Amino acid sequence: EPEVTQTPSHQVTQMGQEVILRCVPISNHLYFYWYRQILGQKVEFLVSFYNNEISEKSEIFDDQFSVERPDGSNFTLKIRSTKLEDSAMYFCASTETGKPQHFGDGTRLSIL
Amino acid sequence: SQKIEQNSEALNIQEGKTATLTCNYTNYSPAYLQWYRQDPGRGPVFLLLIRENEKEKRKERLKVTFDTTLKQSLFHITASQPADSATYLCALPGMNYGGSQGNLIFGKGTKLSVKP
C-alpha cells in the first residue's frame, strides 16, 4: 500500500536556526497537510495546501513557518528561526477528494 | 471554538472483552467524525469515518456510533486482542473547512491496553 514518507525521522537543531522538514505524499494525492504533536499532547493542525497554494492555516502557523511544493513529489515545511517551543513531532498527511487523510510517521524535531 | 473531549486518558481491559471509547464534542455540528489509531512514535492511521446521517458503522471487530443529539461518538472493539493496544484518536473536520478536504481537529486520545 502506498505510504506518505517523511525525512528525516529525527532532526536536532540549535535555537534560532532554520529547519526544513520533508515529505513525499502519496503520488496521486492532491491535498497536503502539516500537523504537529507536542509530547503528551494532541495532534494539532498547522496548514493545508492544494493547487500550489495554502488553503487553510491555524494560529500556530505564523510568519516563521512556510510550506512549499518544489517539484511534483516533495512537500516541505520550513521553520525560519526555531524556538524551544517548536520541539514536537511534525506529521505530513495527504489525501484525494472524498477520502480520509493518510499520515506519515513524522519527524521528531528537537530544538536545543 | 469547537472542543473535543475523549474523557478517558487510559483504558485497561482483559483480552476478549469489548473496549468502548467515548468522544464528546461541543460548539459544533460536524458533517462527519473519524477515528484513528496511533502507535508510539508513529503517525495516526485512519480506521473509520461516520457521517452525521449514519447512526452506526462497522468494520470487522470495530463499531462506531454517532449521536448528533448527544454530540457523542462511541468506538467499540469487540473480542479485543493485545495487538489492539494503542492510542485511539477521535477527529472532526475543522469549523472553517470549505469542503471534504479540510483540516482535522483531534481529541487527545484514549490509550487502550489489552492484557492477555
Please give a structural write-up:
Chain A has no helices and eleven strands. Chain A is mainly β. In chain A, strands 2, 4, 5, 6, 9, 10 and 11 form a seven-stranded mixed sheet that branches. In chain A, a hairpin with a 6-residue loop joins strand 4 and strand 5. With 116 residues, chain B is an all-beta fold. Helices cover 0% and strands 54% of the residues of chain B. The termini of chain B are far apart. The model of chain B has no long low-confidence stretch (mean pLDDT 91). The interface between A and B is medium-sized, with 26 and 25 residues.
Key words describing this protein structure:
heterodimer, A: 112 residues, mainly beta, 7-stranded mixed sheet, 4-stranded antiparallel sheet, 11 strands, B: 116 residues, 6-stranded mixed sheet, 5-stranded antiparallel sheet
Q: What does this entry show, briefly?
A:
Chain A is mainly β.
- How many β-strand runs of chain B? 11
- Taken as a percent bin, the fraction of beta residues of chain A is over 45%
Question: Which runs of chain B of at least 5 residues are low in confidence (pLDDT < 50)?
Answer: none
Which structural category fits the helices and strands of chain A?
A: mainly beta
Q: What is the tally of helical segments of chain A?
A: 0
In oligomeric terms, what are we looking at?
A: heterodimer
Helical content class of chain A: under 10%
What's the rounded overall pLDDT mean of chain A? 94
Main sheet: strands, sense, barrel of chain B: 6 strands, mixed
Please report which band the strand proportion of chain B falls in: under 5%, 5-15%, 15-25%, 25-35%, 35-45% or over 45%: over 45%
Q: What characteristic shape of chain A results from the CA principal axes?
A: globular
Give the topology, please.
The complex is a heterodimer of chains A (112) and B (116).
Chain A: E1 5-7, E2 10-13, E3 19-24, E4 31-37, E5 44-50, E6 53-57, E7 65-68, E8 75-79, E9 88-95, E10 102-103, E11 107-111
Parallel strand pairs in A: 2-11
Antiparallel strand pairs in A: 1-3, 3-8, 4-5, 4-9, 5-6, 7-8, 9-10, 9-11
Chain B: E1 3-5, E2 10-14, E3 19-26, E4 32-38, E5 45-51, E6 56-59, E7 62-67, E8 72-77, E9 86-93, E10 104-106, E11 110-115
Parallel strand pairs in B: 2-11
Antiparallel strand pairs in B: 1-3, 3-8, 4-5, 4-9, 6-7, 7-8, 9-10, 9-11
